[in-house]
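A reminder from the course coordinator: this example appears on the midterm review sheet, so study it carefully.

Given structure:
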């Protein structure tokens, strides 16, 4: 009897771990996390739950519920910097998002639209939460979180494309807001790396108009120009849509925007008002530097290579 009570108490304790950490954004407690030897209990429980969800609609709703739980696990593992466990939670997260979309496709039109609308709402919420996590994550964990964000976007896009045109318009403003927040994050990360002199990480945010990465010569030319006038600060301005032309579409871009910014250099140099194209390429926003620059204080211009 005492052994039984001890086991129940132990499991209750494990299930309650992290409950206070994930109370924000309506996410559930992560429960047993992938770094635990008892994680198999979680997996078995989810399989049983899906087995007894007999209709496609119930399975889809259940899968979304489990996706919420996997997201909570991801955030918990990010905070603890448990990379392998985070990857495991991400695999299950993607699996449940795919399952939700798959089951929704089997429903009648009206029911399917309602469920796809729920998937869109959930995945947008997830993107917002993950963006906040990304801001505080270490460099190693950031790469993992970016992969989760891409999985969330894929789940969102699959559901969004099935919605009627009028519902797509309703969600348009929210999508636009999240896109612009992501672009601000990308541009900010790029400039922070430039200020720190961490050019390798900065170059990871740049892509050419033909969809290729920078050559070594491109990188060296860029570094020479930046080191002539070290950047000490920046501010991000307006972000506007840009028409996707045939050339960029063939290169693999699916959306283009232009972001305005002001770059401030060390004492003795001018402030520069500039802009950059940002393209959505292979599930990520990338900077396409080299759009026109205009000085604010002095007539001299920053010679950023045009790609």
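Designed residues:
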């Amino acid at each position: 009897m005492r052994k039984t009570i001890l086991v129940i108490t132990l499991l209750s304790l494990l299930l309650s771990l992290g409950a206070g950490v994930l109370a924000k954004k309506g996410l559930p407690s992560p429960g047993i996390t992938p770094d635990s030897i008892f994680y198999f209990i979680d997996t078995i429980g989810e399989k049983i739950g899906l087995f007894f969800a007999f209709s496609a609609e119930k399975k889809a709703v259940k899968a979304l519920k489990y996706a919420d739980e996997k997201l909570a696990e991801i955030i918990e593992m990010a905070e603890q910097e448990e990379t392998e466990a985070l990857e495991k939670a991400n695999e299950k997260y993607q699996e449940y998002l795919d399952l939700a979309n798959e089951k929704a496709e089997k429903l009648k039109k009206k029911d399917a639209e309602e469920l796809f609308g729920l998937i869109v709402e959930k995945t947008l919420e997830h993107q917002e939460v993950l963006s906040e996590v990304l801001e505080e994550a270490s460099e190693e964990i950031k790469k993992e979180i970016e992969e989760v964000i891409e999985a969330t976007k894929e789940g969102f896009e699959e559901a969004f494309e099935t919605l009627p045109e009028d519902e797509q318009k309703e969600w348009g403003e929210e999508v636009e807001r999240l896109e612009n927040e992501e672009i601000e994050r990308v541009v900010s990360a790029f400039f922070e790396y430039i200020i720190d002199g961490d050019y390798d990480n900065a170059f990871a945010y740049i892509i050419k108009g033909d969809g290729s990465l920078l050559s070594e010569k491109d990188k060296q030319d860029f570094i020479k120009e930046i080191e002539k006038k070290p950047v000490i600060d920046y501010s991000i301005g307006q972000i506007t849509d840009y028409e996707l032309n045939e050339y960029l579409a063939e290169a693999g871009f699916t959306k283009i925007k232009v972001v305005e910014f002001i770059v401030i250099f060390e004492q003795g140099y001018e402030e520069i008002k500039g802009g950059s194209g940002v393209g959505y390429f292979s599930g990520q926003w990338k900077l396409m530097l080299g759009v026109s620059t205009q000085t604010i204080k002095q007539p001299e211009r920053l010679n950023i290579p045009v790609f």
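The first strand starts at residue 231 and ends at 242. The mean pLDDT is 81.
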